[in-house]
Amino acid sequence: MSRPGPRAARFITLEGIEGAGKSTVARIVGEWLTQHSIPVRLTREPGGTPLAERVRQIVLERGSEHLSPVTETLLMFAARGIHLENLIRPALERGEWVVCDRFTDATRAYQGSGRGVDAKWIEDLATAVHGSLQPDCTLLLDVPVAVGLARARGRSGSSADRFEAEVEAFFERVRAGYLEQAAREPRRIRVIDAAADLAEVEGQVIQILQGFV
């Protein structure tokens, strides 16, 4: 009998508003894949590489200069292009699974639904930056805005970044945008009740991974 070949590398993304628990779920996913002998690389956006992290700092810092929604969107895609060229694509080509905290769905939700940036323009930029590369599976950690912001602001306190300092109405638009995306792509985007306790969230995540792997 022939031996089964290696699993194809997969691209998994985590999405959700501030305080949804993406970092915790990234750790859960990474540990579960490692336990199943699957090579995995954990990363985040904006950022993930030294140069992309410098762009992240520009996007998140609450400085004196104004960033328009269009400029913010361009910076997100600039960081994404750097990240893709230097980390995501090389890792996938080596056969590593990539687990990324945010990707283009975040731009659709934050800059598109949240800021009102033109959806078609965002898709044009997505095509230019990453072409046909799309996540194989997206875990959308859904949490009520009040709950997520309480978690995020309790963690960051007075050092809240540009997004954490936004008003609740902004995050309501972002959350609605995420859920609209999930309704359009239910096979790729799997909604997880992130307001549940950690054990239940972990159970939801592992159930999805078992069906995916």
**Beta-strand content bin:** 5-15%
Q: Which fold name fills CATH's third level, the topology? A: Rossmann fold
Overall spatial form: globular
| CATH class value | Alpha Beta
Number of strands: 5
CA radius of gyration: 17 Å
Q: What order do the helices and strands follow?
A: EHEHHEHHEHHEH
Task: Please report the number of helical segments.
Answer: 8
Name the CATH architecture: 3-Layer(aba) Sandwich
Q: Please state how the strands of the largest beta sheet are arranged side by side.
A: 2-3-1-4-5
- Poorly predicted tracts of residues: 1-5
How does the major sheet shape up?
5 strands, parallel
Mean pLDDT: 93
Summing up helix and strand content along with how strands pair, one would put the structural category as alpha/beta
End-to-end span in angstroms? 22 Å
CATH homologous superfamily heading: P-loop containing nucleotide triphosphate hydrolases
Share in helix: 40-55%
Write a concise keyword list for the protein shown above.
disordered N terminus; 8 helices; 5 strands; 213 residues; alpha/beta; 5-stranded parallel β-sheet; Rossmann fold
Q: Topology of this structure?
A:
Layout: E1 11-15, H1 22-35, E2 40-44, H2 50-60, H3 69-93, E3 97-101, H4 104-114, H5 119-130, E4 137-142, H6 145-156, H7 168-184, E5 189-193, H8 198-212
Parallel strand pairs: 1-3, 1-4, 2-3, 4-5
Helix pairs in contact: 1-8, 2-3, 3-5, 4-5, 4-7
